[in-house]
User: What shape does this take?
Amino acid sequence: MAENTSRSKKLFTTCGIVIFALGIILYFAKAPLGLNRKIYDLPVFLIIIGACLALKGFTAKAKTEEEAALAGRSFTEFLTNNAILLAMLVLVVVICILQPRFMQIRVALDILTQSSTKLIMALGICFTLLIAGTDLSAGRMVGLAAVISASMMQTATYANRFFPDLPQVAVWLPIIAAVAACMIFGALNGFLVAKYDMHPFIATLAVQVIIYGVCSLYFDMPPNNSQPIGGIRSDFSQLGQMRLLSGIYKGFPGISILIPIAAVICVIIWFILNKTVFGKNVYAIGGNREAAVVAGINVFRNIMGIFILASCLYGIAGVLEAARTAGATNNYGNGYELDAIAACVVGGVSLNGGIGKVGGIIMGVLIFTIIQYGLQFINVSPMWQQVIKGVIIAVAVAIDLTKYRRK
Assistant: This one.
């Protein structure tokens, strides 16, 4: 078993060093060979991938006999468990061949930027999926947070102000108000599920309709009368539009502030799920609720906490969406919850509860964003994009159910 682990470490390390060296060679050779317009930033990507693989090889821990036996399963099972990821890699290679401009750092940063708010929302929904539930109200909470925050962040000179007599308030105040409003509805979700044992699908569907109605009533208040909210203050829009390190070298577009914000939230959620009692309780309730009750876990309190925490993340995503687009309407966030649920499932979060990791959710969101962005990049019809997305979701759920039956 130790020999298998050693071979695995050597394989990752060797592949990483080879890919890293290839990237270095191409980086210095592409200009003299006239490959700038053929491979663009491919050398940089190879260097990053190679370094990550080598680091994984160097830092890999020795496995126990049981872990090594599980890792040594058939190649067919490996392909099944990683079918979506492998299909995405093949698609990326095809896109790069058809359109080499896809191999640019600018494109990668655009993909990460588009993934940021989706990832924050998916991290919220993952809590509800981990207890074998769901949250259909997530998208409408994003819209509610966007409308509330944007309505309070308009410039004093904007002609169609939502609140004509509202003074210029500090940026943090609308953010807190928007997130708090979402958390109220999150508490309602949790109460319906925990107190009345209502299925999360029905409970959150009902709350979804309520939120949309409340948001629409708020959006229709005079003098706005359902007009798109614009004239957003620059100090608020910078929360979603600021670029970091934009002048680091010529041609570098900068890193959207949304990327580090999403990264920090990922670390916080990882810590909550893996290092806190609450996180362990989430997995325990999702794995076997009756056993969790017998073990003395307060299921009511934990379910309430799950839906409130999830709604807090939806609120943050909504605020960032309003800042990124410098505006809002009551239709913001419509259907976002379905993409977030799909990304979680593709990332390995089981619909049966109790199984899921933050790393998998990140991968699931990136897979969907890369596929969508890449297909648009090569001008694939939006109708075909929907077909491909549906196939991916169906395959991911089928794989999840197959693994569940085996267990």
The two ends are 23 Å apart (CA to CA). The mean pLDDT is 88. Strands lie at 243-244, 255-256.
